[in-house]
Amino acid sequence: MSSLTDGRDLGFGIRDSRRITESPGRHESPTPNPESRRFWRTLDESVDDPAFQRFVENEFPSQVEAIGDPVQRRTFLKLMGASMALAGATACTRQPLERIVPYVRQPEELIPGKPLFFATAMTLGGVATGLLVESHEGRPTKIEGNPLHPGSLGAADVYAQAAILGLYDPDRATTLTYLGEIRPWSAYLGAMRAVLAAQQPLRGAGIRILTESVGSPTLAAQIRDVLSRYPAAKWHQWDPATSDGARAGARLAFGEYVSTQYRLDRADVIVAFDADLLGCGPGSLRYARDFAARRRPDDPARMNRLYAVETMPTPTGARADHRLPSKPSEVLAVARAIAERVGTGRAGEAGRAGGAGKFIDAVAKDLLAHRGRSLVVAGDHQPAEVHALAHAINQALGNAGATVVYADPVEAAAVSQIDSLRELVDDMNAGKVDLLLILAGNPVYTAPADLNFSAAMDKVQLRAHLSLYEDETSARCHWQIPEAHFLEAWSDARAFDGTASIVQPLIAPLYGGRSAHDVIGVMSERPERSAYDIIREQWKVDPKNDAEWRTWLHDGVIPNTAFAPRSPSLAPSAISNLQLAISNSFEIAFRNDPCVLDGRFANNGWLQELPKPITKLTWDNAIIVSPATAARLSGANNPSYRGGEHGTILSDVFEIRAGGRAVRGPLFAIAGHPDDCATVHLGYGRVRGGNTARDAGFNAGAVRTSQSPWSASGAELVKTGDTYGLPCTQYHHLMEGRAPIHAATKEEYAHDPKSMHEGEEGTPPRTITLYPDYKYEGHKWGMAIDVNACIGCNACVVACQAENNIPVVGKDQVLRGREMHWLRVDTYYSGASENPQTYFQPVPCMHCENAPCEPVCPVGATVHSHEGLNDMVYNRCVGTRYCSNNCPYKVRRFNYFLYQDWNTPSLKLGRNPNVTVRSRGVMEKCTYCVQRINAVKIESEKAGRRIGDGEIRTACQQTCPAEAIVFGDLNDPGSKVARLQADARNYALLGELNTRPRTTYLGAVRNVNPELGEDA
Amino acid sequence: MSQIFQRSANTIARVSIFGAVFFVAGLLYLFDQVNRSPWITEAHVARDQPIQFSHERHVAGNGIDCRYCHTSVEDSSFAGIPPTKTCMNCHSQIFANSVYLEPVRESFRTDRSIEWVRVHDLPDFVYFDHSIHVNKGVGCTTCHGQVDRMPLMWREKSLQMDWCIDCHRQPERYVRPREAVFRVDYEPPPDQLDLGRRLVAEYQIQKLTSCSTCHR
Please, what are the domains in chain A? Predict the structure, then answer.
């Protein structure tokens, strides 16, 4: 593949279309800047580095030396011979004796072999997402979104999808311990009673309860009850997954805590101030759905326009029509300038020159033209001032009540959490605390470094910690109480709009864990009550007539519990006294990691191995900078810029020095990151908390302060001279100059809907081959993926992993390009690397009608089904890997080792019983979730009816918040997928190879502001 | 110089070359036969069970329908092994003190399951669904044999793939009317092929031989 030249005929009527924009004569679209339409994936491609080109050309760079070396070759042949001789012997095992263990008393409604689904909810940052959990004979195996829940609408995010692995994690804390020794629950009760008795006369003055954000009405009521019994006790909250800025901003603007909800379905113009509202945070699944629904180009008048001002590129910024990379301190200035232009705030201060000025003018003009139909969103990591400005702009534009809805906070007690934590540390240092009960979180790890939380704990007489893992905080506590996973315990929670749900358990606690309700219940008047009783009491359920309660459990939502919209009035002085401090120094932005968050999911292998959006890093965090800053800091020998060695990226290790603290991490350049600042993600560098969590990445929190927890100015990056290999999947399966993304602007699309495909070869005619076509008389499965809708959130990747028993391979194997995900989300860029346009493309198996993998398999292990599926037969596969070699899409995955854990008992419970658990030496790939197809087919055959459109949903489709993936029967002309594949935007990936993929893509259409043009 | 090989060596060479073909063919045949023999397939090998449960007694003797115990056979991939409660429905009254049934009573008392030995054990990469077969007119005895004549359960068929495929290619040779699916005394009529073709059309039985029909 390496020696292809532009446009050279390769035979078979196939032409290499390396540069779509450089085929003159074909290009007649009104493209203002053809260069901006050149797509690239890595910075090296964007600069056309010849060294990198050579790297790409070696498909297996790590084995190149071995081929040339005669001695190694001989060894290789010897080993091959031996393996050939032994290959047959592996099949010589007798089937082991299997036992059937029926129930003693079979539960009602349970049909063995058929899954049941239960509604529950997962809480993150105090905000719940409704879920439906699939249960096989009492074992939860798969999590989906709850279509009835306003915060889910049937979609689920990566954290919810990965929660199954969290439940069965063998590293979970399993026993109640006191100073590391196993104790019974009664011993804990005794210890607590003694302390509480001592606190009684002091009115609980020495009691401190530390929680994360509490959204559960019942838990809040329980804590308040305890506080009423011990009036001098204090309740502190610290939850790195929530936003102090949003709380303080609301207080600044309105004088009170209100929560802000967005109605993206009503917004024509959206401005995000460093807000990843599509990718994470409360309501993001809902927002992504509403956003994508208004980006369908077939209704151009309804297409919204998104502007993003941000530091670290996020999925939201990637989907933005215009994006302004800004240093953390500049976001406020931009917000302020926009506020000034739309007629709020003080005038005359906030001018900014250059491209930003043009951007600000255009945004302000667009906002003013869409009064009441625009929306300004401030990000979770932004300070209160930006939030207040966003509120002011929304008020000035008349968006409040239209696109912005204010309501009571979802949290039971909204406080400034950083102040709350600081107060706790001060009290601990002052020796005022006798009992510290940490009900959630890992403050020793997550608290800003300057608070010295761990040291302050020494002054507390008795410390107890409830958590899923024995983590950094557990090590500093006397009592470690194993927590019940949310799938093991009763609770309740509220969605982003206040809608309440009952959290119901799917399984009895695997390790006898306790929930926060149980632990706080110990301090109540009636410690014997179960969480179930407490919750039913809280919701005033009549024990004799609980039909309503059953409906709540069934639906997963309690009707009419959403908070009523409020219309708080803007305090006049809210934004007039804002201090503007643009920093000229080097800045560091701290962000929660998109996969492991603040470290709470660090022991989840699915999330660790998930390539993070944009950076595509796995198992590691990095000091993320712009390409120009990387070049300046690292000199000519740029990190992550030279392609790397053996398919990896070697980065220079730098030391971040800020405020007298230092931490070391590898430098990594990302297109679209602003210059002179760096982004570091939290949640890594864990020292305890499970085998997966430990030794991954570096702890960026070590240089974080409580004064400004999300950014630091005056930081310094110092080169250490070390290098570090980063497992980044962006360099795997490179495009080699092809153009897998088709994109156009809205105007081009209106002019000619097919203009985005210009310069592409297209699919050759069917007559090109001598072989007869397959006939698909029954169903003809196909999939359409809308590149225009995809927000790159990765939920589909984890959903696929959970559904199809896909193993985790570990960092070392990812470095060798051996990750096993059946579905990957490729990120493509076009335009200049300072601020490129970004596109996401999920790539599963294409299920080609002329599949290149099929004819090369010597053992018939990959064959065509009568419905057009490209079947993979594991028990036939002998691991030649010819199929993978011949797959132009690189979607086949090989089990080089026994990646799947076949021994750990707890992991066996979580596997999908309807999908084979693969062993070493076999190829695997996307099956279009054939187990789901077969299940629906069997049911429809039994009922003697046709399968309805949308009845079969693949795992990736089901969880997609943006509804970017559509699966169905192409033989049914009325099916959604058939209609989409007939759309003008539809194109086949590498269609010119005549593979005739069943999975096709719909091109992206960007709603560019003509004033800014395509490049801003 | 004397000849190394005698003249007879030619004959020996011819015979041995010719014989080698037969020898190899014979070995392959032997291998194939061993592979299909009960030694490998475990067909007709009665299994020891924790309780000497007799299908002969319960089906032929008492006339209990298959579905009384195997409740999910019409709805689920798994036909269902009865919970101890099902045994106790009768055996709390009948043979309530039999020593042979002590494991059943113990299970019921202690809430611990009876661990039966699986007789019809498909490899883990095969996904067989009882409900669709039963609904399309494949009788119980077609695959499981005359269970009413089995004091202890054994595997009647090899359960090897060529046995599965045989029916998937020619279902008309095996299907029976839906109402006769659970009859253990059903005998295929002499005109089975005619009946089979009619039923295949009527029940819309597809001849599914794609790999993903059973393997996923």
Answer: 20-58+733-765+780-1006 (3.30.70.20), 244-407 (3.40.228.10), 587-731 (2.40.40.20)
Question: Looking at beta carbons, which residues of chain B come within 8 Å of A104?
Answer: 83-85, 107-108, 111-113
**Closest alpha carbon within chain A to B108:** A104
Chain A, chain B: beta-carbon pairs less than 8 Å apart: 121
Higher pLDDT, A28 or A234: A234
Chain B residue with the nearest C-alpha to that of A102:
B83
The DSSP annotation for A357-371 comes to HHHHHHHHHHHHHTT
- The reply to whether A938 touches chain B by the CB within 8 Å rule is yes
Residues A575-586 have pLDDT tens digits of: 666 666 666 788
At A800, the pLDDT band (50, 70, 90 cuts) reads very high
pLDDT value, residue A649: 75
Tens-digit pLDDT profile for residues A339-380: 888 877 655 544 554 458 888 889 999 999 999 999 999 999
> Are A377 and A384 spatial neighbours (Cβ–Cβ below 8 Å)?
no
CA distances from A901 to A138, A352, A906 (A): 21, 56, 10
Q: What is the pLDDT of residues B144-176, one digit of tens each?
A: 999 999 999 999 998 999 999 999 999 999 999
DSSP A924-965: E---SSHHHHHHHHHHHHHHT-PPPTTSS--HHHHH-TT--E
CA atoms in the 13 A half-sphere facing the CB of A315 = 31
> Do the interacting molecules here have an ipTM over 0.85?
yes
Strands in A139-145's sheet, in edge-to-edge order, are A116-124, A127-136, A139-145
Chain B residues whose C-beta sits inside 8 Å of any chain A C-beta: 40, 42, 71-72, 75-78, 80-85, 107-108, 111-118, 121, 123-125, 127, 129, 131-132, 135-136, 204, 206, 208-213, 215-216
Token couple for A877: 């596969």
Residue of chain A minimizing CA distance to B136: A942
pTM to 2 decimals? 0.90
Q: Which residue of B has its CA nearest to A861?
A: B211
What is d(CA B87, CA A209) in angstroms, rounded to the nearest whole number?
53
Determine the distance in angstroms separating the CA of A12 from the nearest CA of chain B, rounded to an integer.
30
Q: CA A472 to CA A470: how far, in whole Å?
A: 7
Give the distance from residue B117's alpha carbon to the nearest chain A alpha carbon, in angstroms.
5
Q: Which residues of chain B neighbour A915 with C-beta distances below 8 Å? A: 216
Residue A869 has pLDDT above 60, yes or no: yes
Q: Is the pLDDT of residue A18 over 90?
A: no
List of chain B residues whose C-beta atoms are within 8 Å of the C-beta of residue A925: none
CA atoms within 13 Å, Cβ hemisphere of B24: 5
Residue B210 near residue A777 (C-beta atoms within 8 A): no
